[in-house]
Amino acid sequence: MICYASSTDTGGRPYNEDSVDYKKIDEEHLCVVLADGLGGHGGGEIASREAVKLILDGWNGMATPASLCELAQAAHRKILSLQTPVCKMKTTVVILAIEKDRVQWAHAGDSRLYHFIDGKLVFQTRDHSSSQLAVLMGQIKQEEIRFHEDRSNIFRALGQESNFSADAEEQELSLGQHAFLLCTDGFWEYVYENEMETELQVSESPQDWLGRMKCHLEKRADEDNDNNTAAAVWITV
To answer: How many beta carbons lie within 10 A of that of residue 57, not counting itself?
Structure first.
């Protein structure tokens, strides 16, 4: 059984450059795509929307890490074709594809995927950002990314000028309760990982879980906070 919910909000910005959607073939096959248009380049809302649409249209219920990377590459080429000299639109992306008791995911940028088993965080993607590099070099701790001066410096995104590639993985799901959270930086910046766990353990549904996490976000966010978008998927194996 797969349960899904999503939430998106403009935050304190005049318009929303985030996009999220899903495609469900049956009770055992689901694909979720989330994207965050990079506002400093113009056309972010177009880039994120087109990436989500193209990837979902291209998913047919079967996936491998390589095929997800190919879909991300196709979205990258689409965005490049839409760019103009004055609008160099770009976007992050996270893809989660579920096929019975097997999952694949791919991502580029600083939008994240988190995986929880029986209420405990077991995995999160690594951002393609300068602040994540600072973590890998031992200059800061993982939790300090939220406040790092270079956190918004993204070095991998759909629509970039240099060669593009997405990171992808595959996993067979063990017996238990699995929860996946896909979210943009405007969401995870204000919701800490221990809070994701705590709220998951008392939530009755994916929608309930998102609502509880949004309460933390709303308490911390500034008036001009970024767009924030998240999708939650629960799977019982």
So the answer is: 11
